[in-house]
Amino acid sequence: MLPARKVLVDTDPCFFGWGLDLDDGLALLFLLGSPEVEVVGVTTTYGNSFLAVTDRDARLLLARAGRKHIPVHRGAGFFHRDNRPTDASRFLAEAVRREPGELTLLTLGPLTNVAAAAASDPSFARGLRELVMMGGRAATGASEFNFRQDPAAASAVLALPCPKVEITFDICFGVAITAGDVDVLCAAKESTVSGNAARLRRFVSVQKTFRHRHGWDHGSARGGFHPWDVIAAAWLVAPGLFGGVRESSVSVDADGRSRVGPWDGSGAPVRIPATLDAGRFRTLFLDRVPRVRP
Over the stretch 76-86, which tens digit does the pLDDT of each residue have? Predict the structure, then answer.
């Protein structure tokens, strides 16, 4: 059996408090329940909620999962987008310096912390084993929440000289987590996720209604919410779920809109998968998240 891949996670969770989405918390639980990876550090950022909320949430989730030993470092807030160093950016840079070529960085929110780490340490990017981002669009001219929050950071990170994978907004439409899936996730009362069953069911209902009223069901899996960040985490656990991976050149304009084209041979390409095996992903998701227990 191969040794577990060491992973740093930069994230904006709000699993237990006010915020826009629950998928960051589910992604962390998915990773904690997967023997293929070892989460060795978490950095927090704004995005789905205010930094004070996301930082508290990350610490609370790890504590309830029995993983208080995993360090959490507070990062950038909504008004902190100018590459000023934070505890999070310093931690990222120092961790990579200590273990060059060993650490994979998974980003689930705006890329402000990562851009600051790269700006402070020119060796940071070259020391990463891989950078996996949840963000951006496969369709040129479209924008996505994470990149739109800090387009300058997204542009800088996409240009870093390290192996990069972009799990785009578009690929996630093929999976919806339903109320039935929540019942499966929360069936084991001793699991960490089960205490949030009611909140997850409400989120399923709200997202199902919201997407239908706005006409966003067309061409998408229906009946719940799309697990954006969990799908990005799945690349680290089971990359065979993804297909049609292409090497691309990607840039982001000042409004967070992506421009995607064939890799021109300069710099390090961004690898973008085009397809996801939704059925196999759902099976893996429903297996791994309930495994996490205090």
Answer: 999 888 899 99
Is it true that domain 5-173+225-291 has CATH number 3.90.245.10? Answer: yes
How many other CB atoms are there within 10 angstroms of residue 58's CB atom? 27
Q: How far is CA 15 from the centre of its chain?
A: 14
Q: How confident is the model at residue 212 (pLDDT cuts 50, 70, 90)?
A: low
Q: Is 267 left (phi over 0), alpha (psi -120 to 50) or beta?
A: left
Domain boundaries, the chain: 5-173+225-291
Q: What is the pLDDT of residues 37-89, one digit of tens each?
A: 999 999 999 999 999 999 999 999 999 999 999 999 999 999 888 899 999 99
Tell me how crowded residue 220 is: count the other CB atoms within 10 A of its CB: 13
Residue count (the chain): 294
Overall average pLDDT of the 100-110 stretch: 98
Q: Are 6 and 104 in contact (CB under 8 A)?
A: yes
DSSP secondary structure, 206-227, as one string: HHHHHHHHTT--TTS--SEE--
Amino acid at 22: L
What is the spatial distance between Cα 239 and Cα 36, in angstroms, rounded to a whole number? 11
What is the distance between the alpha carbons of residues 24 and 110, in angstroms, rounded to a whole number? 12
State the Rg of the chain over Cα.
18
